[in-house]
TrEMBL record:
The lineage of its organism: Bacteria, Bacillati, Bacillota, Bacilli, Bacillales. GO terms for biological process: ectoine biosynthetic process. It comes from Caldalkalibacillus thermarum (strain TA2.A1). The keyword Lyase applies. Belongs to the ectoine synthase family. This is L-ectoine synthase.
Length: 134
C-alpha cells in the first residue's frame, strides 16, 4: 500500500512551480501504478498552452473557475470552449492541443497515462517526451 500526504510533497522535488501553475506529484512512474497522479494549481489570470502528445490526461476541477479551449492540430482555435468549475472533469483522450485559462486559482486533480517520472521538461513544442527514467 502507498500512502502519501500533500503536506509531505510541498517544498520537495515533487512540487514543481512555474509562472502559470504549481504541480504536486503525488504518484509517479516509480510508484508502479501505471498512471501518475498530480494535485495542480492553475494560477488566476493565466493562459497556458498545453499539448500532451505522448500522454493521455484526465483533469478534475475541485476548486476555482476557468475554461479549457480546444485547438486544432495546427494550434488554431476551434471555437470549442468548456467552462471549468468544481465538479467538472475533462479528458484529453485524443491528445488535444488546448489552452487552459484560470479566472480564479483552480485546483485540479490530474491523472497521466503513461505515468510521468517527475523529471520531464516541456520541449520546444510544449510536449512532455516519453521518459524511461524514474
Amino acid at each position: 500500500m502507498i500512502v502519501k500526504r500533500l503536506e509531505d510533497i510541498i517544498g520537495t522535488d515533487q512540487e514543481v512551480s512555474t509562472d502559470n501553475w504549481i504541480s504536486r506529484r503525488l504518484l509517479l512512474k516509480k510508484d508502479g501504478m501505471g498512471f501518475s497522479l498530480h494535485d495542480t494549481v492553475i494560477k488566476k489570470g493565466t493562459e497556458t498552452f498545453i499539448w500532451y502528445k505522448n500522454h493521455l490526461e484526465a483533469v478534475y476541477c475541485i476548486e476555482g473557475e476557468g475554461e479549457v479551449e480546444v485547438l486544432d492540430d495546427n494550434g488554431e482555435k476551434t471555437g470549442e470552449i468548456y467552462p471549468l468549475k468544481p465538479g467538472t472533469v475533462y479528458a484529453l483522450n485524443g491528445h488535444e492541443k488546448h489552452l487552459l485559462r484560470a479566472t480564479a486559482d483552480m485546483r485540479m486533480v490530474c491523472v497521466f497515462n503513461p505515468p510521468v517520472t517527475g523529471q520531464e521538461v516541456h520541449d520546444e513544442n510544449g510536449v512532455y517526451p516519453l521518459t524511461e527514467e524514474d
